[in-house]
Amino acid sequence: MSAEDRLEGQDDVVLPFAVEALDVRGRAVRLGAALDAMLARHAYPDAVSRVVGEAAALTALLGASLKFEGRFQLQTKTDGPVDMVVVDFDAPDRLRAYARFDAARVEAAGARPRTGELLGTGILAMTIDQGSSASRYQGVVSLEGGGFDEAAHQYFRQSEQIPTVVRLAVAEEFAGGRRRFRAGGLLIQFLPSSPDRARAADLPPGDIPADHPATSAEAPGEDDAWREAKALVETVEDHELVDPAVSSERLLYRLFHERGVRVFDPQPVREVCRCSRDRIFAMMRNFSAQDRHDMVGEDGRIGVTCEFCSRHYDLDPAEVEAEVEAAPEAG
Length: 331
Description:
alpha+beta, Hsp33 domain, CBS domain Like, 2 domains, six-stranded antiparallel beta sheet, six-stranded mixed beta sheet, 11 helices, disordered N terminus
């Protein structure tokens, strides 16, 4: 079925695609109920919800590329009003997220601050974890007042050296008598068969003076196919990335129908948290007996709340100690 015929899209899916005439591959994402459920658990201010929505859309775009059982995590640590954002993507389809923020600073930032203003300066780390320390990979890029799309461009330019364009958008809609959040994103990458064609022309020239001939005549030119692909993506309006009436299939057809776009099977995305009583008990084993004793509240119980899903676990200290003591035997 062609992209033109597949006009009925879905929310909470990542749609891989290829434009073979331009040597471009990519993914489009739409997050609806899954994102709204994540945000509703925390009742974030609107500005924080938009930051989390962008981060979730980018994480889904990147995490959906995993070809194995594992986890992709995006995490920020910055000096801005939203000083931490963490999004986990557990392959093949589970997504969860949370943010830490200073409510007073967020309010002072105004009604609709840019994502970069809320993040401030710091770092963004992207981690791929296949289940063991030997198979763990982490890439880190700096955040200097820009958004998640800008950080993604920097990561692929410096770490992967793959020409990449990312577009992200978050919006609100009224449905079912209340306001809901949506997010969308588009990622394209230039992946020609010849590595020389993918040489980036926008890498900084280092200490070479700006007027030196090497910065122009000897610099590799940008491939025509990639220039065309970028120009097409730049025509996309933010509302097209999130509009329920403009499915990912329809949007891709609008952009690339003259070149022939091929879409693949959509990959679903679900809002699912990894927390459980077993995981909480396992976490308790990392603390000393004194630390666990100090966790006991006035009611004689240990309370643990998951930062991702806000689920509260009410634990009996005696049961915790029994589980900790039994752990070596279980292993």
